[in-house]
């Protein structure tokens, strides 16, 4: 079963294309994290938040990434990182066009 990781933290910017320009190499490196399937970057300039939604192959990979990423963000000056790990209900997600593949999700 695939695992969803939700992360957010207080972040004062930059946002949008400026953020993309600064963090492209970080984004590319995330593709090599064990068990990571995809990431959607999230930001809210209005609420001063940054974060992401990730899909991992398994809970161990998600938890290991959360621990590593929390330490990395703290080194960057982020005081509090909020992370939650969820199981994915693939049957319902597929009905709503969730960006998952049924065969990779349904493995026990």
From TrEMBL:
SUPFAM superfamilies: Dimeric alpha+beta barrel (SSF54909). Signal peptide: none annotated. Keywords: Monooxygenase, Oxidoreductase. This is Monooxygenase. InterPro entries: Dimeric_a/b-barrel, YdhR. Gene3D superfamilies: 3.30.70.100. NCBIfam families: PRK11118.1. Pfam families: ydhR. GO terms for molecular function: monooxygenase activity.
């Amino acid at each position: 079963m695939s695992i969803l990781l939700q992360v957010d933290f207080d972040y004062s910017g930059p946002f949008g294309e400026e953020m993309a320009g600064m963090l492209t190499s970080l984004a590319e490196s995330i593709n090599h994290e064990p068990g990571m399937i995809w990431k959607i970057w999230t930001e809210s300039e209005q609420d001063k938040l940054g974060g992401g939604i990730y899909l991992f192959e398994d809970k161990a990979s998600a938890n290991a990434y959360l621990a590593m990423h929390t330490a990395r963000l703290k080194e960057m000056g982020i005081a509090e990182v909020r992370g939650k790990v969820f199981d994915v209900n693939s049957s319902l997600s597929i009905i709503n066009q969730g960006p998952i593949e049924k065969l990779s999700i349904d493995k026990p």
